[in-house]
Amino acid sequence: MHYLLWMTGLMAAVVATGFLYQWLGAHYDRLRYASEGRWIEIGEGRRLYLLEKGSGGAPVIFESGIAATNLNWFHVQERVSRFGFTASYDRSGLGWSSPSRTPRTPGNIARELHEMLDRAGIKGPYVLVGHSFGGLVMRKFALLYPDEVSSVVLVDPMRCEEWPPLDPTKQALLNRGMKLTNYAIPIARLGLARLAVTSLLCRSGNLAERLAGAAGNGGRHVLGRVKGEVNKMPQEVWPAVAAHWSRPGYYAGMHNHVEAVPESVREMLSSGPIRGIPVLLLTPGKSEPLSEDCLLQIGDNVQQVIAHESEHWIHLDEPELVIDSILEMAMAAAPAAVAATPQTLVPAAAAMNRAPEAWAATS
């Protein structure tokens, strides 16, 4: 009996310690890594975290992939901001933003983005940049607010035909993702996710390897994928990435995004093409180029560019190509600003003609 009481007390102490470790860690994470940006109220107690850099020219607005935050654009935003105003943010349910209250469909997210930009005092016309699922969001934004958009850059946008309901065979993959995120939420609340991701990104990685091994082949596979993508990001953002991945809310937000994929596909199928707005679409060299019919479904003025050295994360594999593409569209959007402020925008035109080595020299 005494042994049982002792074990119960020990377990309670371990759980309480885990909760305290997580709470304190989350508190200090926000103080350390969120100070550069600001939170914008968008109504009903919801706040979106906004990070602004640069000034002048047409505002360049970044939208991340399905489970990514503003950190995914860190390097690209920093470089583009040398030539004009840029803004990245965390969608509801991700990063430092409030939990989501609506299904994570492109339409709902685009409306929240528009509300945030309006309340933040950031006026268009905008150059919209979206990666993967974020490409769907920016397409929807351009359809909802065409008078406020000058151009769109889609970085390997999500292909609706590859997901349910158009491809029902992928539903099992979505279900598995939602199941894993449900498991991750209590793990994060106990501080175990913080231990694992801190080990992976900020220390030796030995603890993360052991935990992944305990989860079997699936755990090792996930760890390998995560390491492969994170290794492409600048090391200075790794601690902030670990902070995001340590939060229970991150996994809840990921679950909500994955759950809404079929509804997102249905929404985009009924949305129609973008008309009268130039769209530049970057496709990885390791993927099949989009057909002419697919491009016409996106818009009536779409130019497809092949990123020959890239996989899905083109902005991490070939950032120079993405930066050049954004600057090209921004320059076209603000010809008057070029004449008015040659000291900031004219160098961008020259930069677009530089070799990648020249870009590296300025980084």
Write the layout of secondary structure elements.
Layout: H1 2-33, E1 38-43, E2 46-53, E3 60-63, H2 74-80, E4 86-90, H3 106-120, E5 126-131, H4 133-144, E6 149-155, H5 171-189, H6 192-202, H7 206-214, H8 217-230, H9 238-245, H10 248-259, H11 261-269, E7 279-284, H12 292-298, E8 302-307, H13 314-317, H14 319-333, H15 335-340, H16 342-351, H17 356-362
Parallel strand pairs: 3-4, 3-5, 5-6, 6-7, 7-8
Antiparallel strand pairs: 1-2, 2-4
Helix pairs in contact: 2-14, 3-4, 5-10, 6-7, 6-9, 7-8, 14-16
Cα-to-Cα separation, first versus last residue: 65 Å
Strand order within the widest sheet? 1-2-4-3-5-6-7-8
Strand tally: 8
Instruction: Determine the mean pLDDT.
Output: 86
Content-based structural category: alpha/beta
Along the chain, the helix and strand elements come as HEEEHEHEHEHHHHHHHEHEHHHHH
Shape assignment: globular
How many helical stretches? 17
Helix percent band: 40-55%
Radius of gyration: 21 Å
Key terms:
8 strands, eight-stranded mixed sheet, Rossmann fold, disordered C terminus, 2 domains, alpha/beta, 363 residues
Explained architecture:
By secondary structure, this protein is of the alpha/beta class. Strand 5, helix 4 and strand 6 form a beta-alpha-beta unit. It is built from 17 helices and eight strands. Helix 3 packs across helix 4, helix 7 packs antiparallel against helix 8 and helix 14 packs across helix 16. An eight-stranded mixed sheet has the order 1-2-4-3-5-6-7-8, sandwiched between helices. The chain has two domains: 216 residues, Rossmann fold (3-Layer(aba) Sandwich), CATH 3.40.50.1820; 92 residues, no CATH class.
